[in-house]
Write a sequence for this structure.
């Protein structure tokens, strides 16, 4: 494969990998699981292109030109992102020092995006009309088909070997069974809160609810699927949100945490949201959002607001928020 076609292929695969990686964070229902599969396939397409890119790099290293350090750095970042992704999928490595494997993978992915944009600015590769010729489109299709077959082979191998990666959820997350093993994870810069359950109140509309009032004993089995790469299905206990607030007064519900973190939901979904005070029959631990957290079945973990301080009715639409929290 020619050097220019290889570089274009790697560029598009890298951008698709980043786009589907972001999509994999957002996916919460099984119907969207194709995004996670696509993420794996385009990542393997990069692996397939590696031998050709290695030849290009070898030739480039023999010439004196600016930007060599950036090219080497970008190559290392892509390799690190792929390796951490494979480790994450296989389930054999949970952490690297103080960081989870998912944190390493995402961090390297973000760094790869930045380095790619800088690389494109310094060495642009303009597209040509011939790039869309039938022959080149067939090559691209063949590359993706080969990557898809490799993905199926890897998934089959993990399943037959009874490896941890063979039991992943459609989001790619690994199961945690015991409620006491649930990690105390937060979004970006949040910190675990240590609140007094007896003195904590949640402002819902114009009313203030004590924790004991929210501990209504209504149970729901729901799956918390964290973007940290794990999921757990537990029996949660508390009260359904629509029992606590007038849902005819606005268009959306804004659920806020004592940390300032918040998420917005369609008001008509209040009947499928829960304020819970217990998990598996026991009071919520601090690290799991105690004394009160939100349970939002069918949504990823960053929707499950911890340490809830208030729920507000708002006239803004539910989409009036970043697709992923910014802090």
């Amino acid at each position: 494969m020619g050097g220019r076609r290889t570089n274009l292929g790697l560029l598009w695969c890298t951008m698709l990998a980043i786009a589907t990686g972001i999509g994999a964070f957002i996916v919460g229902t099984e119907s969207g699981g194709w995004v996670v599969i696509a993420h794996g396939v385009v990542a393997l397409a990069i692996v397939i292109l590696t031998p050709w890119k290695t030849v290009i790099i070898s030739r480039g290293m023999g010439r004196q030109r600016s930007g060599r350090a950036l090219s080497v750095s970008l190559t290392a970042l892509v390799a690190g992102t792929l390796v951490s992704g494979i480790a994450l999928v296989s389930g054999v490595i949970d952490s690297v020092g103080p960081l989870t494997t998912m944190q390493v993978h995402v961090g390297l992915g973000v760094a790869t995006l930045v380095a790619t944009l800088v690389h494109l600015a310094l060495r642009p590769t303009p597209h040509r009309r011939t790039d869309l010729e039938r022959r080149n489109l067939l090559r691209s299709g063949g590359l993706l088909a080969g990557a898809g077959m490799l993905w199926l082979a890897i998934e089959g191998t993990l399943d037959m070997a009874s490896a941890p990666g063979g039991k992943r959820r459609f989001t790619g997350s690994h199961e945690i069974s015991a409620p006491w093993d649930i990690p105390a994870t937060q979004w970006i810069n949040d910190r675990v809160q240590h609140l007094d359950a007896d003195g904590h109140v949640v402002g819902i509309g114009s009313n203030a609810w004590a924790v004991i009032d929210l501990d209504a004993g209504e149970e729901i089995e729901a799956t918390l699927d964290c973007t940290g790469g794990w999921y757990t299905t537990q029996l949660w206990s508390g009260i359904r949100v629509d029992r606590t607030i007038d849902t005819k007064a606005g268009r959306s519900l804004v659920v806020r945490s004592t940390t300032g973190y918040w998420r917005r939901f369609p008001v008509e979904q209040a009947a499928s949201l829960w304020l819970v005070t217990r998990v598996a029959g026991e009071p919520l631990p601090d690290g799991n959002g105690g004394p009160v957290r939100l349970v939002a079945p069918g949504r990823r973990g960053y929707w499950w607001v911890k340490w809830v301080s208030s729920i507000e009715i708002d006239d803004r639409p539910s989409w009036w928020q970043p697709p992923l929290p910014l802090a």
Helices lie at 3-26, 34-61, 68-90, 101-122, 134-160, 211-214.
